[in-house]
Amino acid sequence: MIQERNIRVGVLGATGYTGLELLRLLLRHPDITITVVTSERSAGQTFSDVFPAFRGQLDLQLSPLKVKEISKQTTVVFSCLPHQQSMPHTSAFLEYGSKVIDLSADFRLDSTAVFKEWYGAHVAPQLLQEKVYGLPELYRDQIRDSFLVANPGCYPTATILGLAPLLKNGLIAPESIIVDAKSGVSGAGRNPKQETVFSEVDESLKPYGVERHRHTPEIEQELSKLAGCEMHIRFTPHLIPMNRGLLATIYAKALKKMTSADLLRIYEKHYTSETFVRILPPDQLPNTKQVRGSNFCDISVRYDETTEWITVFSALDNLTKGASGQAIQNMNLMCGLTETTGLLGTALIP
Amino acid sequence: MIQERNIRVGVLGATGYTGLELLRLLLRHPDITITVVTSERSAGQTFSDVFPAFRGQLDLQLSPLKVKEISKQTTVVFSCLPHQQSMPHTSAFLEYGSKVIDLSADFRLDSTAVFKEWYGAHVAPQLLQEKVYGLPELYRDQIRDSFLVANPGCYPTATILGLAPLLKNGLIAPESIIVDAKSGVSGAGRNPKQETVFSEVDESLKPYGVERHRHTPEIEQELSKLAGCEMHIRFTPHLIPMNRGLLATIYAKALKKMTSADLLRIYEKHYTSETFVRILPPDQLPNTKQVRGSNFCDISVRYDETTEWITVFSALDNLTKGASGQAIQNMNLMCGLTETTGLLGTALIP
Amino acid sequence: MIQERNIRVGVLGATGYTGLELLRLLLRHPDITITVVTSERSAGQTFSDVFPAFRGQLDLQLSPLKVKEISKQTTVVFSCLPHQQSMPHTSAFLEYGSKVIDLSADFRLDSTAVFKEWYGAHVAPQLLQEKVYGLPELYRDQIRDSFLVANPGCYPTATILGLAPLLKNGLIAPESIIVDAKSGVSGAGRNPKQETVFSEVDESLKPYGVERHRHTPEIEQELSKLAGCEMHIRFTPHLIPMNRGLLATIYAKALKKMTSADLLRIYEKHYTSETFVRILPPDQLPNTKQVRGSNFCDISVRYDETTEWITVFSALDNLTKGASGQAIQNMNLMCGLTETTGLLGTALIP
Amino acid sequence: MIQERNIRVGVLGATGYTGLELLRLLLRHPDITITVVTSERSAGQTFSDVFPAFRGQLDLQLSPLKVKEISKQTTVVFSCLPHQQSMPHTSAFLEYGSKVIDLSADFRLDSTAVFKEWYGAHVAPQLLQEKVYGLPELYRDQIRDSFLVANPGCYPTATILGLAPLLKNGLIAPESIIVDAKSGVSGAGRNPKQETVFSEVDESLKPYGVERHRHTPEIEQELSKLAGCEMHIRFTPHLIPMNRGLLATIYAKALKKMTSADLLRIYEKHYTSETFVRILPPDQLPNTKQVRGSNFCDISVRYDETTEWITVFSALDNLTKGASGQAIQNMNLMCGLTETTGLLGTALIP
Questions:
Q1: Which of B74, D166, D204, D245 has its CA 20 to 30 A from that of B14?
Q2: Judging by beta carbons within 10 Å of its beta carbon (0-12, 13-18, 19+), is residue D344 exposed, middle or buried?
Q3: Residues of chain B with C-beta less than 8 angstroms from the C-beta of A285
Q4: Which domain holds residue B270?
Q5: Is D154 a known active-site residue?
Q6: Which residues in chain B have Cβ-Cβ distances shorter than 8 Å to D53?
Q7: Residue C342 lies in a domain
Q8: Is residue D103 domain-shared with residue D185, that is, in the same domain?
Q9: Are D265 and D169 in the same domain?
Q10: Do A180 and B249 touch (CB under 8 A)?
């Protein structure tokens, strides 16, 4: 594929947190022009009036979602709409010739039946088959050729990247996997809810979605492909009093005796060519602060001799590698650009 | 035992966070008088000069640790000294007739060998045998008759209370236990360290002490007694950007099929007479905010049909039920008072 | 007045943050029984089902607001209803014989005209005259004899207590007063709003209500009485990323040369009999953390020789001395109890 | 001046927060190469071993401070050393031909006598005269020609930018200026201190440095030049429980009647050519969150008809426009680059 220069991009649902993060990152991308930003609620207002941080940087007017018009102005459309609001428009965008990167869950699952169980009826089931699951570390080549990419969820990204080397190498008991995940509050979105009011969250810590969290089938789908058998996991998310950051602490029973050093070598080898997956040295452990605002996923792995449990720690920024940064990584691949374009740089610390 | 009226208490190492919390709670206790507070660093200063919150409430002068003098002024001594600084003085206090409640790890372990492995040589090994482990829900009667109580650690309290009904009833595979624990920063103490500087902790999330955390042998000791066999667990603590609060998320493989409702009944029955352990109704999950500053430990339990994992959530305030509140609960028992005296009341929310 | 034993109290609008704090404090009060708690939204539910922190402590059922029934069950009614929702019911409560302490702004102003300008028409204007403004440090005797107390706002409490010694002693230029106030987020209430979502507030700092904040006329009314002339202030509130706590930094031009030591003596003398106003020693400054959850207002004062500005720092917990603690202080006075009953004790730190 | 391509830069004291922020920004700068990073404490370690966020981005080895060697490798040296540790080396760097941008207070003051009063004896007093005060909005042309730039403090930057239009236009009474400033904790540096421990700061709010804060003479020096007369201000800083962000709320008495709209026009005109100073529209107020990690200073101004006070709100990120971003802005000027190079882009929100 010839590299497209000056890629024109549109962002649907630009006023949520994933839209905001996407635009922050796109402003630093050398090869794109932002041509359209949509919001039903704020249509007519300037983006920088809604988000003063963007004053002087993105003074584009927000418009309502009009598929045909937007297609004319875009090479790539990022959909940051809520779940189930993206699928009705996607076919039309594809027919009009825009590539689509969807950040909702609308196209992540392969099975119409599983989608129905967790979200309700799918209005464009054929696209579930046509899409590519946008985890570049697993599906880089398919993403390059794709016109519709389903951008993974934040918990699935951390979990799948954390477990891939173990499953590929057949090192763990499939029925033993525990994923104890922790996320900052921005994952709950920008709309006001009782449970995200500052005074409810600050100085608090709690599990949520314990019975049924919608990221479970997405994780299980991808782990099953990696393992070559149907996988079920115990997935438990927790809400952490911070804005950004996600840590998956993953436990799995080792099938044979080994050492932490063995595991480190396996992980380093597995991810040796990956820029955005960093296997930490043996004296370090992931800290979400070290990836805040960056597209890295930091991973450590340990073997406990006494109990024979393997523990994997996988940390990322839920809005960057867990959403909008990964979406740009996918765009770079789909448009023939260098995969890391516009995505390097370090976390905002402290 | 006849109830002692107007119990005179002393607090050693009163200027750390457990000392501070102890004094906050003791000020509300109707049956005690605070007679001595010690601090090597701040000796000579008034307690309320060091902690302005106590102005007008506790204007006692801080003194250096002089065992004989303190014994004369106290019925009960709470030791909030750092690990290994308490054990050299304890025998003397007991000989002079003061009861001792030790909040450090100095007397929690039963085995001199295990103590040596984790902390170094013990200078009063006979007291390891004489002490009672101060978890009233397990050892109420022994505590009533004891002169030396080893007050449990915060992680052990949450974990042991969370697992006791499962182990007592033989419901789980002993080698399957995962304890994924999360704690606020006050657990790391008041002394300045690089890793507890505000800008390092705020907006961060990380595991720590993954290879060897000193609470592991304490937890394993008590779980082994409950199970009647030697137990090993995979224990992984995490640091949460908040002051107070601790949540243990505990996973264990069920030995037979059951339901969450079955487990709820078992837990409710097990803790039916306990004031400070609250089994939450089936539509609720623990949140550390709901126990902040109170002596409650809130517990939920769930069974996952697909994976046959049991998940227990156990939340408490690391400084209250996880330290100083529990110490007063022990004092009440040791002095023949109603166990809940001075300890009822609700969390500070929001 | 003869002391009433076992005062029966009701709390209207019990599920907001001032209601919650009031109930936390009332549970520790030795002379009262909580007989009624109301909530339109949660009527029928148990209080502890809505707020799990209260499980086992307050398992009363929430009822809708029925004036006559509630009057029969109460000696004192605390109204924690939103502004303008309290004034329609107050006359009836008073006629039925319940004393009323109103925590909204409905009765704080003396002037019907000023009330109309800031809130709209008043439906019970005669009560504006009958009420007593519930700041015990100013109106203790009137409160003792009152049946309707208008509990002051949080900003007014901190500001008026901070300025009273200066105005009473005629030390400052009346037109020079600047009040730069800072408050935690709980002051904005429990209802979800865009601007109180965690991710919007956390790691942020901003002024708000700069043109017109409704606490301005309340502050000016009371300062004018203290000064004996009409006073106007420049009042600027700021939102701080924390739950509780309020600091008013007050600037006023000195009318003559003096020293910080002079001012300290004046403040100490002015508040010498007040338990809940603490004038800090010269080497300390107020910190909201030192009053969190307690009924104290901590004050420091400084004179700057170079500029001849006096600076007063006045810190309190907006939900305690700034709302519900002060309401109980008023109840104690109205019911002939010792003013400090149930209100002593220290902050929750850390 | 001819533009220098590929400017080689060194950072002294690279492991503090201003060093860290400088390196984060320099990694995004297209025209520079980072050749040296120094740290006495961590010399020999790789920068990314000390700060895992930089893994794969800056794997340079930290070296001790050796002036001659560093000069050979650098066009520009940024000194992020603590106060008084920079001045002994600066002359040598200049003699060896490196330009120096000093982020400490060592060269900010013009007067040796004033420096002595606040910091002690100056070891290179002639440089106090030769330096340029690095506030580009005031001294752009002088900075272009300078070899030694004293990078302003964070409070001074916000305050001076906030007051310049009022002083230049003679609109306020000079003796009336109040600066009530609020800062996040990163301003206190990375070294552990009792007062920056997380549990001491979190959920707290306090004034500090009330009698003498070292930024006062720096602010007064620059305001005096702007006003053309000796100026004294009442400057009061406060510590806010957040990492980054600074807000100066500035009060000054208007010399004549005006409106907020008049003031807005004056500010817009004054800063019309400035990229990094944004005058907000009349319906907005600064929020530190909107400038976090960006080089903007957001300003609003209001006139209060009742009291005739003008209030200015000036917000910036203390580590970016308040330190390291401004340092790069100065470097761009000193090296003939476009002033905004590497500095555009929006805040990290949420």
A1: D204
A2: middle
A3: 206-208, 210
A4: 155-318
A5: yes
A6: none
A7: no
A8: no
A9: yes
A10: yes
Closest-CA distance of chain D to residue B199, Å = 5
Residues of B in contact with D193 (CB under 8 A): 192, 197
Q: Which residues contact A26 (CB under 8 A, 6 or more apart)?
A: A9, A11, A32, A34, A328, A342
Report yes or no: D21 and A253 within 8 Å, Cβ to Cβ.
no
Asked whether residue C60 falls in the same domain as residue C140, the answer is: yes
Tell me the backbone φ, ψ of residue C346, rounded to 5 degrees: -105, 170
Rounded Cα–Cα distance for residues C41 and D165 (Å): 52
Give me the CATH number covering residue D209. Answer: 3.30.360.10
Beta carbons of C193 and A193 less than 8 Å apart: no
CB-CB under 8 Å, A192 with C192: yes
User: Is C94 in the same domain as C232?
Assistant: no
Average pLDDT over residues A232-261: 97
Q: Are B293 and C293 an interchain contact pair (Cβ–Cβ within 8 Å)?
A: yes
pLDDT averaged over 10-residue windows placed end to end, chain B, 350 residues:
75 97 97 97 96 95 97 98 95 97 97 95 96 98 98 98 98 96 96 96 96 90 97 97 98 97 98 98 97 98 96 98 98 97 95
Chains in contact with D, where contact means 3 or more Cβ–Cβ distances below 8 Å, are A, B, C
**Is the Cβ of B66 closer than 8 Å to some Cβ of chain D?**
no
A197 and A130 belong to one structural domain? no
H helical segments located in A275-339: 325-334
Do residues B145 and B280 both lie within one domain? no
Nearest CA among A5, A27, A4 for reference residue A14: A27
DSSP E strands: which ranges in B262-344? Answer: 277-279, 297-303, 309-316
Q: Cα B54–B55–B60 angle (5° rounding)?
A: 80
Q: Rounded CA gap, B203 and D198, in Å? A: 11
Domain assignment present for A339: no
CB contact under 8 A, D51 and A290: yes
Buried b (16+ CB within 10 A) or exposed e, D2-21: eebeebbbbbbbbbbbbbbb
Q: B110 with B122, same domain?
A: yes
State the Cα–Cα distance between residues C114 and C218, nearest whole angstrom: 10
User: In this structure, are strands B246-253 and B309-316 parallel, antiparallel, or unpaired?
Assistant: antiparallel
D102 domain-assigned: yes
Tell me how many residue pairs between chain A and chain C have CB atoms under 8 A apart. 63
Query: ipTM of this predicted complex?
Result: 0.96
Instruction: Give the chains touching B; criterion: ≥3 Cβ pairs < 8 Å.
Output: A, C, D
pTM over 0.95: yes
Contact yes or no for A64/A40 (Cβ under 8 A): yes
* Contact flag A245-B210 (C-beta cutoff 8 Å): no
- Rounded to the nearest 10°, the torsion over CA B330, B140, B181, C49 is -90
Number of domains in chain A: 2
Which CATH number goes with the domain that contains D42? Answer: 3.40.50.720
C200 CB neighbours in chain A (<8 A) are 190, 198
* A window 137-196, beta carbon within 8 A of D: 186, 190
Both A216 and A144 in one domain: the answer is: no
A198 contact residues in C (CB cutoff 8 A): 185, 196-198, 200-202, 241, 243
**Please, are residues C173 and C204 in contact by the beta-carbon 8 Å criterion?**
no
3-state secondary structure of A146: coil
